[in-house]
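In response to reviewer comment 3 from the previous cycle, which asked for concrete evidence that the modeling workflow produces usable outputs, we include below a single protein chain processed end to end. The sequence was submitted unchanged, and the resulting structure tokens are shown without manual editing.
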Amino acid sequence: MPIRTAGFRIAKILGIPIYLDATWLLIFGLITYTLAMDFRQMHPQWTPTEHWSLGILTSLLFFASVLFHELAHSVVALHYQIPVHSITLFLFGGIARIGREPSKPIQEFNIAVAGPLASILLAGAFGAMTLLFPSAQMVGALAKILGGSNFILAVFNLAPGFPLDGGRIFRAIVWGITKDFSRATLIAGSSGRVVAYALMAIGGYEAFYKNDWYSGLWLGVIGLYLLNAAQQSIAQMTIRDALAGLHASDVMSHEVPTIEGHITLEEYGAEVLRTGRRCHLVLSGDRLVGMMNVHTLNSVPREQWANNSVQSAMIPRDKIQWTSPDEPLLKLLERLLTADINQMPVVSGAADQAPQIVGMVTRDSILRVMQTHSELASQFSGK
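The workflow returned the following structure tokens.
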């Protein structure tokens, strides 16, 4: 399932950082316990140490299989010069976070299908091992479970529900037919919601009618996750459409408020309350020395405002993040969100000239564009 990053880093493969999300520890422990109990029931002649050792090893190899699945996506993405920022193993398996969407339907198709093909390859390899080792032996028992789990992993991911691999394959096909990426994403997102609701319905049936609360709850949780992921994908597509073709210069404010660095934080707070402006460039005389905003102000304890100047708390000039008038608005929004900042000065000037601050872009100004686009789109669609 090519989105997300979090957790702690455990390795780097093919230049791609590998992370473990905190939720992975939960599912790893649950799977290990379940396998150990299954091995104890199926092979009572083994010792408890053997039951638990094989349970741990099988769990580790299963998640190694999930990682192999995600690496298959990543290798194909890298082949198309699409950067892969990270791979994260978490509660529901794994996610490869790629830097951008594929530019052609065939690229989307090949990236998506690579994961299930890798899982089928592993299923075949472990299946072949069962022919060499009987299931009564530890290697045979391990191979039997891993062969089956990789086959299930491949089949489940081929379900035509976005953002599962099957949903991405479906989007690639629709994209190729309609030549419209946005329309294909909306159709695939709808299929994702159908699959999510189906999983939740099956989960409810398993829990209430078959009294299998474990399977029912698990299917329901997976369904909720897929529903949320599908809705996020549709929301991201709406944002792409709203900001397509727009640049920083289209939404920037030409008014760039400034403040003197020697005033106290108390005085700066009063200025913010008086004018409602949440961000100021900080000057020392005529020289730009930094930037000050409400977030930075609030990071200083309230009782220290009277005794500290703006210059002592501001973001220094060399730490300010800038944008240019021609930076695409979608890319700029991604930078604002990644850096967790609300505004960015717009700088103009050739390489051989002193750069000049010509405006300011804020998250609010971008959100207003998106809101207006949404309102107009609903008006047009209603006609």
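The two ends are 37 Å apart (CA to CA). We consider this sufficient to address the reviewer's concern, and the full set will be provided in the supplementary archive.
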